[in-house]
Amino acid sequence: MSDTAASDTAERDEQREEQQEDQQEERDGQRARDARTRERRVAALRGARRVLARPGFVTTLRERLALLDGLDELYDLDEPSDLYGNGVVAALEERTAALLGMEAAAFFPTGTMAQQVALRCWAGRTGNPVVALHGLGHPEVHERNAFSRVAGLRPVRLTGEPRQPTADEVRDFGEPFGALMLELPLREAGYLLPTWEELTEVVGAARERDAVVHFDGARLWECTVHFGRPLAEIAGLADSVYVSFYKSLGGYGGAALAGPRTLVEEAKAWRHRYGGQVFQQFPTVLSALAGLERELPRLPECVAHARVVAGALREGLAAAGLPWARVHPEVPHTHEFQVWLPCTPEAAGEAALRQAEETGTMLFSQPWDAAGPGIALTEVSVGASGLEWTADDVRTAVADFAARLTA
After folding, report:
1. What DSSP string describes 187-245?
2. Which of the residues 113, 126, 167, 317 could staple to 178 if both were Cys, CB 3.0 to 4.6 A apart?
3. CB contact at 8 A, 256 and 243
4. Count of beta carbons in the 10 Å neighbourhood of residue 266
5. Mean pLDDT throughout 362-370?
């Protein structure tokens, strides 16, 4: 190599190293900015006098422990503590199975583990490790390819469109699959649900292909209003169902897999292999029982009020003159939905935080993400604290937020 060529190569290497260093500095800076924003958001949530939903995980340890106050009215606290899944854990499993109309249920530390176990058990029964699911489903978006890397499953995407899959997509899919997995509601698409007729058609299409049906029902608890059916009837469409005890019920964590007794017994064996046979779990399990007793009964009211809040948000955004602002879906299917605004996520997030910090009212408490060039998206949840908001309260808060955003 000539001296000139060697010099050019060295210069290119030096430029590449400088570019990589600049990119790393930018990534580090962005992480630091994100961390500061998270700290402000948590502080604002803790300090706000009015919020539509106050998630438990932002409160103090003392406040979280208070969730267990009064539990002696719900469960006999003088009985022996649980060991490796007996006692109070078994009691929660029995209650969950009864609520969902299933033969049995197994408690899991996480939904990620519960669904891997469920679908690998079904794969053993069907002889087919292929799982048909939505491209926006939780395992595809948030679980680092766990189905394929850990469970030996092969996920295939029925669709990537921001809607529920159709019966024709299930019926006409180009290769065999052993299980159909449906996320109800589909969070990434705006907490969307199919109609009851659409759901029964999709399930029927899977049955025509001799596939089992599994519901990712982390938020199944709040689907009864949209479907106009009780939990047991909804869950009864599927062969197995996973539910979460913290996403809507406010527990410390935990999940359950419900289905036929033989499947659940096998799932418990795999739970042990996965490291989910925890020595003692009574704090989390007691918080789940509290959620079933206290939060589950008022979820229908939260869903109904979310529709009031969504309508007032729509009206307030229109009155503020924000072009392309959108509430999605216009009539929420659950107590959670999306809001889209014509601005950057940074601008929307700053306006939301300033409103909370300066007025004590936090209209938008969730992070803002980019949904496209110049479009910001956030999620809105209406919890127990949101039931106090009238439509006028929402419209007033929207006007204040919009003034800060446009300023």
Report:
1. GGGTSB---HHHHHHHHHHHHHTT-EEEEEETTGGGGHHHHTS-HHHHHTTSSEEEEES
2. 126
3. yes
4. 19
5. 96
